[in-house]
Amino acid sequence: MPSWLKNPWWGLGLLIIGWWAVTYSFPGFYRIPLVTAILFTAITAIAFLLYYVYKDMSYCKYVCPIGSVTKAFGRISFTWLGSYKEDCSDCKSFDCAKACPYSLKPFTFDNKNSMEDCSLCMECSSACDAISFKIVKPSSSLYKKFKFDKIEVWTYILITAAISITMSFHHGLGRSMVAKEMPWNNTAEYFKSFIDFGSLDVVGLFAFLYAMIATLGLVYGGMYLASRALKAEFNKTFYTLGYAFAPLFIIGGLSHLLHGFFTSEYADIVNGFIYGFGLNIEEVKNLASKKDNWLIIFEAFKYIAAIWAFIIMYKRVNLFTASKYAKMIAFFFASFLILFYLYINLYRVYVVQTYGVPPHASHMHHK
Ligand code: SF4
Ligand code: SF4
User: Fold this and answer.
1) What's the 91 CA to ligand 1 centre distance in angstroms?
2) How large is the average pLDDT for residues 335-344?
3) Given pLDDT bands bounded at 50, 70 and 90, which one contains residue 293?
4) Atom number of ligand 2 nearest to Cα 131
5) How far is 151 from 114, CA to CA, in rounded Å?
6) Lowest-confidence range among 51-60, 90-99, 207-216, 331-340?
7) Whole-number mean pLDDT of the chain?
8) Residues 243, 249, 252, CA angle at the centre, nearest 5°?
9) What residues are in contact with ligand 2 under a 6 Å CB criterion?
10) How many A from CA of 106 to the centre of ligand 2?
11) Do the beta carbons of residue 162 and residue 16 sit within 8 Å?
């Protein structure tokens, strides 16, 4: 693959701009069946083409928007693929590496403390018995030192902004009694007063932009102050501690995902199949109504995500050599994004408790 294309920023950029920015700005766009069909046909065609033209699953590693988050899931996962050192030390065949469609070297994973782009396809384990597959403490690889990978940290930061923070702005606070007071709403109203945006969801677009600005400001500001407290280089501080943000989108995002699955996506998917394949089966209904109180249990994922992120931050601050006091200060500054995430979620709870939910809130889901 040419070096200009062999860049994981393609996948991440496509995910943030091509998917999320469009989803917030034109909420109905990807729900038009023809658009979805064209999009996924194009993605599949490109994947097929690049798979045969370039080796090492380059498309999956560098271009595919989903591939860009594979590493992130590997970091939080409770499974670990490695190898038995005693068998590998005198190995001459390296069958595991030869079998890997991604050209990875699974016998190096334990030492590097990274599974790189491993998709757990298990081809290597069929090729050699010395491959080990273990259940480990979730995110335990993040408690140890390893060579940081900038794109991994940027994936956590940008997706946290695009999914977790924007959702909290636009869907969380945007469907509360204070929605009209929110800055992204006021900015949108201001621009709408003299520009005709047509079908563009200006509030959604500004919620996305404000979330990006807030996230980047908090991360940069917090990491700068943390690096001063630790007397460490900014880049080293930024990329060592930035790994702590991983749970915010992976675990925090589950809240919205599960809520959506139970209240609409389950029925959409099943009925889509029934309709698409002309099956002679009765249509299914949503698994839950948006008014069901029990759906509140999914909110717990947001708080689990924040607590988990604090634990990783604590462990990673301790990888630095500094006084206990300096580490405490650095922990506080570096956690600005986690604190903000917690704050906006708690603030929404406060708003709902104090002012109630607007009567039309349950109909405000993007369709
Ligand atoms: S996992 Fe098997 S093939 Fe790979 S280095 Fe170890 S012994 Fe060799
Ligand atoms: S599980 Fe698959 S992707 Fe991972 S190292 Fe083995 S062969 Fe490669």
Assistant:
1) 6
2) 96
3) confident
4) 6
5) 14
6) 51-60
7) 90
8) 120
9) 81, 99-100, 102, 104, 106, 118-124
10) 7
11) yes
Averaged pLDDT, 278-304: 91
Structure token pair of residue 98: 């030869």
Residue 79 backbone dihedrals phi, psi, to 5 degrees: -115, 150
The CB density around residue 361, as the number of other CB atoms within 10 Å, is: 18
Cβ proximity of 268 and 284 under 8 Å: no
pLDDT bracket for residue 361 (50, 70, 90): low
What distances in angstroms separate CA 149 from CA 10, 28, 102, 323, one per listed residue?
Answer: 16, 35, 18, 26
Name the token pair of 47: 């994947």
pLDDT (0 to 100) of residue 64: 81
Structure-token match 């899931």, residue found: 73
CATH of domain 79-135: 3.30.70
- Nearest ligand (C-alpha, residue 106): 2
**In contact, 348 and 176? CB cutoff 8 Å:** yes
Give the start-to-end residue ranges of the domains of the chain. 9-65, 79-135, 150-363
Position 130: which residue type?
Answer: A
Instruction: Please tell me the residue having the least CA distance from ligand 1 atom 6.
Output: 88
As given in the structure block, the two tokens for residue 367 are 């369709």
Cβ neighbourhood burial of 228 (10 Å; 0-12, 13-18, 19+)? middle
CA of 316 to the centre of ligand 2 (A): 27
Q: Looking at residues 103-125, what average pLDDT do you find?
A: 91
pLDDT band at 62 (very low <50, low <70, confident <90, very high): confident
Taking the C-alpha atoms of residue 338 and residue 318, their distance in angstroms, rounded to an integer, is 18
Atom in ligand 1 nearest the alpha carbon of residue 94:
3
